[in-house]
Amino acid sequence: MYKRITSSILCMILLFTIIPGEPFYADAAPKETAKILNDTLNIRKGPGLSYGIEAIARKDEKYGVIERNKDWVKLDLPGNRTGWAATWLVQIQSGAEEETIYSNAEDVRIRKGPGTSHAVVGTFPLGKQAVLVKKQGDWSNISYNGVRGWISSRYASSSVKDSEAKNAAQRPLGYITASSLNVRSAPSSASSLLGSVKKGTEVAILKSEGTWLRISYSGKTGWVSRDYVKSGSLESQIKTEQTGVVTAASLNVRNAPSLTGGLAGKVLKNEQVSILEEKYSWTKIRFNRSQTGWVSSLYIKASETGSQKEKTPKNSGAIRLISDGTNIRSSASVNSSVIARGKTGQTYTVLSLQNDWYKIKLSGGRTGYVAGWLAEDAEFGKTVNRPGESKSLKGKTIVIDPGHGGIDGGTSGSGGTLEKSLTMKTAGYLSGELQSEGANVVMTRSSDLYISLSSRVTTAQLRSADAFISLHYDSSSNKTVRGMTVYYYHSSGQKLALPIKEELIKNTRSADRGVRFGDYHVIRENSRPSILIELGYLSSITDEMTVNSNSFQKNAVHGITEGLKDYFTQQ
Fold it and tell me: Percentage of residues in the chain with pLDDT exceeding 90?
């Protein structure tokens, strides 16, 4: 009896050991595999960098995935071993035969659902590969590095080659204008230095972030200051520029349009140069292919080479429409037939600039023309004015009022920025640009002095100012508040505020807090067209850093100047 019971128990134990449990990938294909992305990868004994190394895997090797633990996956290793790998260093793939796609844009957003209203759950970096799960309309469901979600199909290609080609065609080009420009690992001057690029080097612009650009050059990528990158191809820029010939035996090139400007080089008689700009009796030239500077206009004889009717525009290579129902025509004329209509915000690749018309690329390999005054450069704003439009500031009296001063410091930022000092800096830049346009500029203060509000108003009245502009920087208890606001009190000020605000936002890309009514003494008691501008929030760490930069100051001043031109054109 005892032997019979014992035999039955042994049979049952043997039976249960034969019945398979969950597959351990010995006899079945894994549901998922992990492809190694690094040249070598440490496979660890547990899900964390603190665990010891179990094995070392090589690039492109594949292992079955047993389980997941946050950012780690447990892998089935040879010899009945297991180990853990970080998900960001492997590519998770389905066990079934799968279709792969590649990102053709920078950091494509992965969303929870097929639409822009769904939350972002991750990003799909440029050139990376993902598993295509399914498609739904214009959206693709993908699996990338353990993240499952949806991306717009327009940002994906079926092969690496197609991805690279599409991305290359979409990238705006630029070239370096500094003699040697530092390339950094992140958009910050405190980030590590990756190297440098020389003047004249052509680069692809991958991404814009504040005052920084991410560029691609010689097979490398990195971040540089946007102040020293000129948009467009250097070659096409040179080809389309007006040329001139040096008539002096030897002519000094200076870094500013003045005899006090430092020497930037020399050019010799009969040397051919490109004419970039003219200011009073000075001409800005390009010489030695990539160097620029100012020379006396007396010794430059201008000439034109090539066709001036059709040329590559000096812009980012794309335009954005600024109104609904924009006519796209068959040729560069308002009398030509309409072949399509566009909506506000639509962007198009620019093929050339013919007179005041953009030649653009349409779907199906077609081309069309858009009037330049109905579009703006996708990166730099409006660049073409309506024919016959006058924007001269010559002879206009502009009173610039740098806010605060002396014992009145105004607000201050966490980084130590004083409002009274920053308004003085901005006013100095603005005065210089307005004077170069021929305006008669009057400053309510030119140093760190306290000036009463009534004295500031009196200055505008006595000078019969065509425009009064009071410059300020704002503050808020809410440290996240950013952007700029333009205030007016009288209707004449509102007419002045609207175009200046538009150009300020267009040139600085700051957060737009609009044009508002403001009960401030300098504009309330002022009978001249007057506005008060809050150019940013010193209470915001981001805004404080931005407004202190030379690029912001330059762009803000240019925006105010262009806004004034628009204002006087409408009068």
Answer: 23
pLDDT at 26: 37
Residues contacting residue 160 through CB under 8 Å, at least 6 positions apart: 102, 127, 129
- For residue 159, the model assigns a pLDDT of 58
> What is the helix (H) or strand (E) element at residue 135, kind and residue range?
strand 129-136
Q: Alpha-carbon distance 169 to 443, whole Å?
A: 48
Question: For residues 286 and 203, is the Cβ–Cβ distance under 8 A?
Answer: no
Q: According to the model, what pLDDT value does residue 168 have?
A: 47
* C-alpha distances out from residue 195 to 181, 219, 221, Å: 9, 13, 10
Span between the terminal Cα atoms of the chain, in Å: 116
**CATH class of the region 241-303:** mainly beta
- The pLDDT score that the predictor gives to residue 217 is 76
Which pLDDT tens digit goes with each residue over 288-308? 877 888 887 767 877 644 444
Fold of 171-234: SH3 type barrels. (2.30.30)
Look at residue 386 and tell me whether its pLDDT is greater than 60: no
Which of 25-29, 321-325, 433-437 bottoms out in mean pLDDT, i.e. has the lowest? 25-29
Q: Give ∠ CA 346-351-352 in degrees, rounded to 5.
A: 110
The reply to whether 397-570 shares the fold of 24-94 is: no
DSSP 8-state secondary structure symbol assigned to residue 106: T
Instruction: Say which CATH class 24-94 falls into.
Output: mainly beta
Cβ(569)–Cβ(512) below 8 Å: no
Which three-class secondary structure state does DSSP give residue 359?
Answer: strand
Chain centroid to Cα 6, Å, comes to: 80
